Task: structure prediction
Amino acid sequence: MPPFEPGSVWLVGAGPGDPGLLSLLAFHALGEADDIVYDALVGEGILALAGTGAVLHHAGKRGGKPSAKQADITEKLIELARSGRKVLRLKGGDPFIFGRGGEEALALAAAGVPFRLVPGITAAVAGLAYAGIPITDRRVNSAVTFITGHESGGGPPEGLDWPALATGAPVLILYMALKHLAWMAERLIDAGLSPDTAVVLISKATTQDQHILETHLAAAAADAEAAGIEAPAIVAIGDVVDLRAALDPGATPEARARAVLQLGDSRKNE
Ligand code: SAH
Result:
């Protein structure tokens, strides 16, 4: 493993929750760091891997407390590094996917602080895999699109080209989408996407509280509310969701084998 130099910051993705999904670099950094500045999405199971002497700094909102300001977080990282500490900045999923990792890295660069960037497994990739859904399947989709359902001002993503997404993006993955899900589903249906398009919601993916709900586009927001789906959750829209019937880790091997045959009937294998 590369040495964790005093006076540097490692900006690391912790994955979506299951400690088993940490990279070896993330695991190494957890053991070596003097200070760990972590977000609300980083779970206890991961923080439990911190070295005994590490100081933990919470930098996200949890339990109704206001979230730390982004400028305060970057200032803290810079201050700690300048005082000669080994600073681990730990973020949920991947730091650069809707995680403001870019802003933090730019602030470190501007301050002349040495840093290392370590990717993590993003919630969409891990969440779909744990639900038994390949995020791409060459018979179904030749593209996958990640969308934030929440702009920095709190509103829905109004600037997107919905007709292009409805016709040209076969699988859509929505982050931060619960609040504006009804709004987004309506935009997609108005733009021509079938209201029957398969949808899956995965809440608290890869944790012990994981909750999966399969539905379809027209009903997704109402079904999510009725089922009490809680944040954090990702929403996947598209035909790859149907493959879950055959790959659901919670199903019996017999049920999966039956589902493979049924899928084969409706879709010609090449
Ligand atoms: N950088 C993170 C995303 C941060 S934005 C990543 O790469 O995963 C926060 C959003 O990520 C949440 O609103 C939710 O949509 C998604 N998310 C993060 N962790 C999740 C989890 N364990 N289960 C489901 N969704 C999750």
